[in-house]
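assembly run, all chains below
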Amino acid sequence: MNNSVQQPNVALKSIVKRYGDVEVVRGIDLEIADKEFVVLVGPSGCGKSTTLRMIAGLEEISDGELYIEDRKVNLVAPKDRDVAMVFQNYALYPHLNVAGNIAFGLNIRKVPKDEINRLVTEVAEILGLTPYLERRPADLSGGQRQRVAMGRAIVRHPKVFLFDEPLSNLDAKLRTQMRAEIKRLHKRLGVTSVYVTHDQVEAMTLADRIVVMADGRIEQVGTPMELFNNPVNTFVASFMGSPPMNQLDAVVESNAEGSFAMFGGQKIALPELEELQGADGRKVVVGVRPEHVFIEPTEDSSPIKVELDLIETLGSEALLHTHVGDTPFVVKAETHGDIDHLSSIDTIYIPTRRVKVFDGETQMAYGFVKAEG
Amino acid sequence: MADIGNVGSPTENTMPNVQVSGKPTFSERMQLLMYRVRQDWQIYVLLAPAIIWFLIFLYKPMYGLQIAFKDYSVFLGITGSDWVGLEHFQTLFGSDQFLRAVRNTIQISAWSLLFGFPAPIILALMFNEILKETFKKTAQTIVYLPHFISSVIIAGIIITAFSPSAGVVNTFLSWIGIDPVYFLTKPEWFRPIFIGTGIWQEAGFQSIVFLASIAGVNPSLYESAVVDGASRWQMMWKITLPSILPTIIIMLIIRIGNIMEVSFEMIILLYQPATYETADVVNTFIYRQGIQGGQYDLAAAAGLFNAVVAFTLVMTANTISKRFSRTSLW
Amino acid sequence: MSKMNMNLYSRGDKTFVMVNMVLIGLFTIAALYPFIYVAALSFSSGFAATAGTVVLTPVDATIAAYERVLTAPEFWHSYMNTMFYTIAGTLMSLLIVIPGAYALSRPQLVGRRFWNLMVAFTMWFHAGMIPFWLNMRDLGLLDSYFGIIIGFAVNAFNIILLRNFFESIPSSFAEAARMDGANEFQILWKVFVPLSKPAIATITLFCIVARWNGFFWAMILLTDDSKIPLQVYLRHTIAELSDDEEFAATLLSAAYSVETVTAAIIVCSIIPVLLVYPWVQKYFNKGILLGGVKE
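ok done. output:
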C-alpha cells in the first residue's frame, strides 16, 4: 500500500455528516489509491453507506474535504465527479431493455449513437449479457440484473466505482458467484473501487484494503490478513472472521514464567507484551480465533477445561460449541472424515503465540503494531 | 492515515487550508447555497405552476372571503367595500330559509349516512361470497358504472322515470292499482328519492375500498376456520367483518367529517320551489342567494359558515382517526 | 377463498351461496335497469312514452327522437365543446399536476412540508362558491373557454395521489439517474413518468371523467350558448322541454315526446362514457386505493 500515499485517487479528509445535531459520520480520514479495491464494512448504522453516498455526491458533506484525483469535489455535482455507482436494488428501469438501461447515462450525456452502440456491445461482452440485450429487467435472473447494474456503471468508464451492498439481494450461492465475478472484473478493468457491505466475508474476499467502521468512525484500516491477524480492538476482532474470535474476560497475573490470564480457576499463558509488564490484577479480554485452537496437546499451549454443547459438522471441519464457565467458546477442528473422536472432548489447547490480549477498559489490543499505509 | 499534504492543488481551491471543523464561513455558506441552487433549481420550476395555480384559484378566493364581513359593492371591489362586522351572520341566523337549509343539510347527510354507509359494506361482503369469477366481474362492472355517469344524466333519468304520466315508476304503481304520484313535487318524497339515487349511484363504487380491505385478510384465517368446520356465514361474521373493521371505522369517520358536503349539484337538478322545504341545503341556498340573487356578501357569509363547520368536523375526524387507528387520513 | 371446491360445501353453505348470488343479481339488474329503461324510451314513439307503456323494450319502435336530437346544430356544437374541454382540460391538468407532484415528492425540496400542507389544506378548507365565482369574474374568466380549462385544472386529491406514488418509488432510481447525469426534468420525464404509468393513467381518467361530466361551474360561468358543454345543453333541453307546456303540447301528436327526446340525448351522451369505461375500470381499482388512506 505504499503507493497510496503518493497517488491517492480518492481522499477523504475529516469527513463529517450531520443531520441536524446528529453526527452519523464523525470525521473520516481515508486515502484510496488508484486501482485499489477498498471495502467499507461495519454493522448497520455505522455510517459506511453515508460515507459512500458522500463520495458519490448523493449526500452533501457537512464538514471536511473530499478529493477525487486531486480535485476538491465537495461542491461538484454527482454527474461531474466521474464516479459510477451500483445500487443495492440495482435501480434498473423496468421500461427499458438491458441495452437501454446500460445506455441510459450515455443517452443523457448525448453521446453519439454509434459510440453508444459500440460501448454497449463492448460492456455486454465483458459481462456476458450479449444474448439478453433486448430483454426487460423483469425477464432477467437476479444475477443477470446484477450484471446489468454493473454494466451501467462500467459503460461510462468512470474513475471510481462505488458499490452499495450490491450483493445483499442475492441468494447465498449466487452471492459467492457474483463476488468472484466482481473481483475478476476489477482485475480486468483496474478501476478504483469503493465497496460497502455489512458482510465481513465479502469484505475479506474482495478487498485490497478493508475499512472497518463503527458508530461513524473508522476502527481500523488494513489488508484482510492484517485485520484478521492483528485486530486493533475487540470490536474488529469480533467483527472480522467467521465464526468470530472467542473472547474471555480475565485478570492478569504474572510470575517468573510469564504472564497469565486467570478466569474461573483456569489460566491461559499470555505472549510477552510490553503492556503486560506490571499489569497484575488488570482486567483484560483474551481473544482466541476458533481456527487457532488445538484439541490435542501442543508445545507452548495452555490446556483449558471446557464443556461441549454441540458439534456442527461442516464436512472437512467441524465447529465445537463449548462453554467455559458462562462464556461460550467455539473451536474449529478438523474432522478427518469422522466426528466421533470430537464428541468426547473436554480439554482444548490454546497456543500462546496465537493469544490476543485486549485491555479490559479500553478494549484496545496490547502489542498492536500499526500497519503501514 | 497521516496527513496528506500533497493532495489537492491549492490553486484550485479558494481556501487552501480550510479549517476542517468549526462554523462554516460566510463564503462557504454562499458556495453551498449556490451549489444547491445549481443542483435543484429545476425542482422549483416544476413546482411553480402548481403553487401559482393554488394561489390564484384557491387562496385568492380565501382573501375574498372578507366580503362576508363587508357590505360588498361591485363598484368598490372586495378591498374597497365597507366593513359591516357580523351583520350578515345576524341576518342569516335570523332567516328561516337559512336555518332550514342548515337543518336540511344535516338531516339529508344523516339519512344518507344511515342508509348509504352500510350499503357498500354489505355489497362488498356479498361480492366476496361469489364463487363464479365471471359473474362477479360482470356484476362489479355493472354496479360501478353509475358512478361514472354525470349528475345531469342521472337527474334526467330520475325526472323521466318519476314523471307522473310517462314515468315507469308510476306505471309500476298503476299495475298494483295506485294512482300516479307526482313524486318530484312532493316534499316528503324528495329525500327518499335523493338518498336512494345516491346509493344506486355510489354504493357499487364505494364497495371497492372494502373489497380491497377484504382481499388483505390473511387466507390462513379462513383455512383454519374451514378445518374447524365453520360455515361461510359464520366466517363472514367472525372473520371477514372483524378484519375489515378498521377500514369501516376510517370510512365512517371520513363520512362524518364530510357531513356538510351534500352533493348539491344533484339537488339543484332535482329540486323545485315545491320541495325547498325538505331539499334546500346550505350550498343550494348560497347558489340561489349569491349567483342567482346577486347577494354576494350574504351568500359568502353562509359559505364561510359552511366551510368553518366542515373544517372543524374534518379536523376532529382526523384527530379521532389518529387516536383510533394510529392512521391519519392524509 | 373463492378457489375452494363447491363440492366440499355443506348444504347450508350451498344455500347461502345461492341466495347471495340471487341478491347480487337483483342489485345488478337494479343498477342496470334505468339505463335499459332510458334506452327503450329513446326508441319508443312519443305516444307510447307519454302513455307510460314503456317498461323494458321500445314500444312502437322509431328513431324519431334521435332525428330530432341529432339534427339540432346546438347538440353537435355542445358535443364538440365537451370534447375540447375534456382533451384540453385533461392535458392542462397533467401539465400542472405531474410536475407539481414530482416536486412535492423530492426530499431536497426546501420547505417541502410547507408546500405539501399548502396543497392539502385546500382539501379541508375552501372559500366556497361565491368568492371563487367573484375571483373568476375579477380574472376575466367568465364566459371563457380558457377559464373553464384553467380554473379546474388542479385538485389537491390528484396531486397528493400522484405524489404518494412518486414517493413510493425507491430513491435509488432518481439517484442512479442523477449519477448518470440526468437533471430533474430528465429524471421526471425519463424515469418517474414511465415508472408511474398506472398512477398517471388513473388521474388522467379521473380528469377525463370529471371533465366529461362537469356541469355546475360550466352552467354558472358560461353564458354564451356557443360555449356550453354537452351536460349544460342537456340540462337546458330537459328544462326547456318539461317547462314549456305549449311546446310539450305540440309534441304530443308527434312521433317523439319530451321523454323520448330527453332519453335520446341521455343515450347520446352516455355512449362515449361506455366506450372508455373498460379502460377506466382497469385502472380505478388501483387508483382509488393509491389515493386512499395513507399510513
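Chain C has two domains: 6-71+230-261, 74-221.

Chain C touches chain B through 109 residues (CB under 8 Å).

not gonna interpret more than that til we talk
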